[in-house]
């Protein structure tokens, strides 16, 4: 019942007007068959009268035929009206669901929820329901099942004219089978249930790795196809086996229910035949009652259709849980920020990733003066990227505060521009890939930013789609993509971002290109608070200040010269890199 309630509520909210039209259509198409049954009885009665020579029967027969035609036309009209409104309503429902899902997922300012397995399971279940057209089938099923169910009820009323026990017996038979079907529905809805959602998501991931281009190269080189196929199959089977076992049990119950229903039909039809042979009811009445017995089948055949409603209801329930869960962490409205470079401060910040016990940052204090540049260095996994994501407001600290201009860091505040390690490679035009950083800028500004980022000669016009799969599209090399991402960050800075975060922004560039780029970049970004993460210490040395991150703490802090003089970890790393580079150059020579 909860599924029905949720489904009705969603339909109502998606499109009230069409919902009402469908409801009226269902009422009409569900009730009219009973009227047609009675009208057909009248026609047969008149025909029998004509055969037996009753003079008045022909006139009554004509009237009955006229009524029959009128009701049949009404029925056809109601069907047409329902089908048309239903098509529109199912589209509106899908749009409403998608909208709710997008609102829920985009609500929180941070991205931590996208790494929470429980949230991801809910997002997946809701998206899968849309992909599999669950809502379309549910509405179709709902309309059909409500119509035939209504016909079933009015048929039972018609059958009361035969005897009080005939409809009661049939209702009892249908009720028995209904119980079995309801159990069946519940078991089928388990396909989407929380218990197996995680395993399904995992198996889906293996399937994607097998089928999608992203992993295609490594799948071939490492010969992973067989292994992935096996993992996909075994995870999926493990998830589904429990569901199949439950289905097996319910199938036995269904068989029992079906046999019971056959038995009550034998009794009722036997009773009808007995009355007809005994002459206690007319041929016309037999015809009406036979139709009524068949019409009562709607009480159970409807169950096949309402399976879809159960699935949609489950998906809607999960969508509701998701919305409630994410509402609690939704972003506060963005306030107007002051222009100019940002002051950045981490105050006693401790941070763990969701579900992990390891503190990536542990009671960390750090202050960056407005307009200055800070480089963060450290070994792999030291927490440099994590620190930048906290500064961007994409994660919230477990304790302490990350403040940008004295307010908690907020990615939606319009003050942060960033090039992260996993920056976006959008399958859009070159222009769009840049203007996403500052919507509304003109082509001159786009070209200027591309020039500054060293991306003036990509072999693409501003209109070229950056994806080979599109007409006239092209793909870029890793370094070229990085330059486009830099151009995007640059336009955001031009448009007022006061904090620029660059996490390995030049990792894919060759050494010469990197040096050239940094020279230009530092010029352009002068006056903007810049946080730079890089393993290339030759680039880092130009920053106003450098911190070395190790063991969740800042262990060294100063200018390049100060850190070199101190002779600590930074100096060792720098000397090592410089000597390696010298050896590399000598070898090349
Ligand atoms: N989304 C995540 N969920 C859980 N743990 C994570 C996540 N991202 C990073 N980590 C862990 O946090 C630690 C710090 O990662 P981070 O990416 O900040 O390091 P880093 O210093 O930037 O490393 P690198 O130099 O390799 O880029 C790593 O041990 C990593 O395993």
From TrEMBL:
PROSITE patterns: ABC_TRANSPORTER_1, ABC_TRANSPORTER_2. Its main location: membrane. It comes from the Bacteria. One of its GO terms (molecular function) is ATP binding. Coiled coil: none annotated. Residues 344-576 form the ABC transporter domain. The chain crosses the membrane at residues 21-44, 64-82, 150-182, 219-238, 250-269. Keywords: ATP-binding, Membrane, Nucleotide-binding, Transmembrane, Transmembrane helix. This is ATP-binding cassette subfamily B protein. It comes from Actinopolymorpha pittospori.
């Amino acid at each position: 019942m909860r599924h029905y309630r949720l489904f009705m509520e969603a339909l109502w909210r998606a499109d009230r007007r069409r919902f009402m039209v469908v409801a009226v259509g269902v009422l009409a198409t569900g009730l009219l068959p009973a009227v047609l049954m009675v009208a057909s009885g009248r026609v047969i009665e008149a025909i029998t009268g004509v055969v037996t020579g009753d003079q008045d029967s022909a006139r009554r027969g004509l009237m009955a035929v006229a009524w029959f035609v009128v009701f049949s036309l009404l029925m056809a009209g109601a069907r047409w009206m329902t089908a048309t409104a239903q098509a529109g309503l199912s589209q509106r429902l899908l749009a409403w669901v998608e909208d709710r899902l997008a609102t829920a997922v985009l609500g929180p300012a941070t991205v931590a929820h996208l790494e929470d397995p429980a949230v991801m399971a809910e997002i997946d279940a809701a998206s899968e329901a849309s992909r599999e057209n669950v809502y379309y089938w549910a509405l179709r099923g709902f309309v059909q099942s409500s119509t035939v169910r209504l016909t079933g009820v009015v048929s039972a009323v018609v059958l009361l004219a035969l005897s009080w026990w005939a409809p009661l017996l049939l209702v009892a038979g249908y009720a028995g089978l209904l119980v079995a079907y309801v159990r069946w529905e519940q078991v089928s809805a388990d396909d989407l249930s929380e218990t197996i959602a995680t395993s399904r998501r995992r198996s889906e991931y293996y399937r994607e790795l097998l089928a999608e281009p992203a992993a295609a190269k490594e799948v071939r080189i490492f010969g992973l196809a067989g292994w992935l196929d096996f993992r996909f199959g075994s995870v999926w089977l493990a998830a589904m086996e429990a569901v199949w076992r439950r289905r097996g049990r319910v199938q036995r119950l269904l068989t029992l229910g079906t046999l019971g229903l056959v038995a009550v039909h034998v009794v009722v039809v036997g009773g009808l035949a007995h009355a007809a042979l005994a002459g206690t009811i007319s041929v016309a009445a037999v015809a009406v009652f036979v139709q009524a017995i068949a019409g009562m089948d709607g009480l159970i055949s409807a169950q096949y259709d309402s399976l879809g409603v159960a699935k949609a209801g489950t998906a809607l329930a999960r969508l509701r849980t998701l919305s409630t869960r994410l509402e609690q962490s939704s972003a506060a409205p963005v306030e107007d920020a002051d222009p100019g470079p940002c002051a950045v401060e981490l105050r006693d910040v401790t941070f763990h990733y969701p579900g992990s016990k390891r503190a990536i940052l542990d009671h960390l204090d750090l202050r960056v003066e407005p307009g200055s540049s800070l480089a963060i260095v450290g070994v792999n996994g030291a927490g440099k990227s994590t620190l930048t994501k906290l500064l961007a407001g994409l994660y919230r600290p477990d304790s302490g505060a990350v403040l940008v201009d004295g307010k908690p860091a907020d990615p939606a505040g319009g003050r942060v521009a960033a090039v992260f390690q996993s920056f976006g490679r959008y399958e859009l035009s070159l222009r769009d890939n840049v203007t996403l950083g500052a919507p509304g800028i003109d082509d001159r500004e786009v070209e200027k930013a591309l020039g500054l980022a060293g991306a003036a000669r990509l072999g693409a016009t501003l209109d070229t789609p950056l994806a080979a799969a599109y007409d006239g599209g092209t793909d870029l090399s890793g370094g070229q993509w990085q330059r486009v991402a830099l151009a995007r960050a640059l336009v955001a800075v031009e448009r007022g971002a006061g904090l620029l975060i660059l996490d390995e922004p030049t990792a894919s560039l060759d050494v010469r290109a990197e040096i050239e780029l940094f020279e230009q970049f530092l010029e352009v970004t002068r006056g903007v608070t810049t946080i730079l993460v890089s393993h290339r210490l030759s680039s880092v040395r130009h920053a106003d200040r450098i911190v070395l991150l190790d063991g969740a703490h800042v262990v060294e802090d100063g200018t390049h010269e100060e850190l070199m003089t101190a002779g600590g970890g930074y100096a060792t790393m720098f000397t090592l890199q410089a000597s390696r580079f010298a050896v590399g150059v000598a070898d090349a020579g």
